[in-house]
Amino acid sequence: MASILCNGESIQSITAQYASNTTTPLLLTFPHSGGNYPDDFLPNPSLSFETIDFPNDKYVDELFDSHSSLGLPAIRANFPRTYIDVNRHQHNIDPSMMETQESWYGHFLSTDSQKENGATLFWSKTKLGRYDLYDRKLSQDEMKQRIATCYVPFHQALASSIEDMKKKFKMAYILDCHSYAEFSSKFRGGARRPQIDVLNRHGQSCNPQFTECVADAFSDCGYDVTLNNIYTGGEMLLRYGWPQINQHALQFEIRRDLYMDEESRQKSGQFTKMQNDCTKVLSSVKQHIDNLCGAY
Predict the structure, then answer these.
(1) ∠ CA(167), CA(173), CA(175), 5° rounding?
(2) Pairwise CA distance, residues 56 & 31, whole Å
(3) Is the CB of residue 192 less than 8 Å from the CB of residue 230?
(4) Partners of 275 in beta bridges
């Protein structure tokens, strides 16, 4: 298993929790909840940890830790998304971040909006685009190292898990778990965001029943739920959401002020309630998919 060096200690770059005896073809992914900062990250030293950590979907994996007791597998990135973002295309790179103009072995697919927001494969800005994440350029060698040790292993593990699930059940459902800031960036208008946003690439990454099930489960817990309101879904849905081959991927965003203090990065007094509600949501989704399996 690929590893990263954090505080001088080698740790696995991803955690894949398999459930060999699972009876449900449902897999959870946590691409942005990693809190282990690699020693070679070297962000702008003038920034506080809270500012550097601001884009991360902190504690989302803990909100859904009931997946283990429910017998559901999960894959988590152990590194922060600002180090490398596995919910971006491998070639979504801002060339202005490179310290050299030598030919890059891949392609450049980043959009102007992503570069302005600093939210490409290697993030260049933090805290809703307000601060430069680095006071330096990145070498091509370190970019390739991050791709090889973090990005590739995450997607290899996910693809392998999906294939195993489809061999066993003839179907696979992927629940991609995220959180977002209470307010949008100035670039997006600065408005307060919905409590829960459910994303399915405008109905293209999964069947409508999966979307309805997840949205209803959050709504039944009393949350304001929207569909493809703030985002439509990232690389996880584009790469793995193919209902044409019975492979369904859905992403959701939980507003962070519902369970944590965004500035201090600490859990709030509402964390336990949110965690209990997420357990209810996951149980409802599992039951829905179990019912589907029984129909086959």
Answers:
(1) 140
(2) 10
(3) no
(4) none
Domains of the chain plus CATH, in order, are: 3-88+133-295 (3.40.630.40)
Show Cβ contacts of residue 202 under 8 Å, excluding neighbours closer than 6 positions.
228, 232
3-state secondary structure of 172: strand
pLDDT tens-digit profile of 233-250? Answer: 999 999 999 999 999 999
- Please state, in angstroms and as integers, the Cα–Cα distance from residue 111 to each residue in 116, 140, 241, following that order: 9, 20, 22
CA pair distance 176, 231, nearest whole angstrom: 13
The amino acid at residue 172 is A
Q: Closest by alpha carbon to 156, among 83, 57, 240?
A: 240
> pTM here?
0.96
Instruction: Give the DSSP letter string of 67-119.
Output: GTTTT--EEEE-S-TTT--TTS-TT---GGGBS--SPPSS-----HHHHHHT-
